[in-house]
Write the structure tokens for this entry.
Amino acid sequence: MQVKCPTCQRSIEWAGAPYRPFCSERCRLIDLGGWLSERHAIPGEAQQRAEADQHAPEPQTLD
């Protein structure tokens, strides 16, 4: 089965691709960089966590 690399759109054979769904380690690292720099994000997830943190009780410290 032929698929397209999500980064560069090159067509690759799915069964033999060691970096699937990417065509190469370079494309895999480009995608990872997008997630780490927050160019890629799942909508709503971060905002929900921030709201939950605002309503969480303050941690108690042992003095």
Residues 2-41 form a domain with the Erythroid Transcription Factor GATA-1; Chain A fold (CATH 3.30.50.10). Residues 44 and 50 are 10 Å apart (CA to CA). The two ends are 63 Å apart (CA to CA). The first helix runs from residue 25 to 36.
